[in-house]
Amino acid sequence: MRIKTWLFLAFLIVPIIELALFYVVGSSIGLLPTLFLILVTAVMGSMLVSRQGRDTWIRLKREIATGESPSATLVHGAMILVAGALLLTPGFLTDAVGFALLIPVVREALRGWFVRRMQTRWVVIR
Q1: Would residue 20 count as lying in a domain?
Q2: pTM of structure
Q3: Number of domains in the chain
């Protein structure tokens, strides 16, 4: 599928899923606990993104200084940035994906999958 189709589906389906999750969670635990949970995940997520972003920035500067290829670190940094955006967006699905992107093993697995997928189409530098 083309990227436009994927984006259209994401912008159509994700809000519907988020609304359904808000309804289910709100019905189960109540309005105020649901709002508190959303606030807590945003605060915790921003703290984790900040820490991992700093660590990635330090690693990037070190790799550049030593002449290593910073490609993997740049990809990890981009995924951390996306995780931050998802964690600041109110919703349970976006929070789950955002927190998953803060796990280094998940980021590396996604990077590896993307590299394998794109090797047949592009010249990929590891």
Answers
A1: yes
A2: 0.85
A3: 1
